[in-house]
Amino acid sequence: MTEGCKSVVFARFHPSEEVSGFSTFLRDVRVASHIKLVKLMASLRTGARIEKGKAHFARECGSYIYVYIMGTLPEYQNRGLGSTLLSHISTIADSKGLPCYLESSSEDSRRFYERHGYSVRDTLYIDKGSPPLYLMSRPMKPSVSRETARSQT
After folding, report:
1. pLDDT at 131
2. Where do the structural domains in the chain lie, given as residue ranges?
3. Whether 50 contacts 103, CB under 8 Å
4. Considering 65, 70, 122, 128, which has the largest number of Cβ atoms within 10 A of its Cβ?
5. Spelled out in words, what is the top-level CATH class assigned to the domain 3-152?
6. What angle is formed at CA 105 by the lines to CA 107 and CA 82, rounded to 5 degrees?
7. Residue limits of the N-acetyltransferase domain (predicted)?
């Protein structure tokens, strides 16, 4: 988090710090109370597809860092705050020999993440006409292997 909460990133090691399914369900129920039933069903289907994407990534890569919230207040965007925070997450991931994974909800954020080494793995749509949701990942740095990273800790 930057000074004054102008930009924030939340990330966790996955799967070791994964939020329980029940906690996720309770969060979704609180959010769902404000959504029409049709939209809720579409959102739940998309949520299941997001979870499948993360599970596939975990099978492919093992542990990874999951960036689950990233944002900068609009009036502070394009000043390098988000880049600084994401670079910090990348440094941690590289030091641990881990890849990163996230979902991006706009074209602008997709381009931002691509500039930081992320690539689109899949694109989801909540329902017809909705904006895309990009499932993205960043590989661990080629110069850092998991064995090397583990031997340094």
Report:
1. 85
2. 3-152
3. yes
4. 65
5. alpha beta
6. 80
7. 1-141
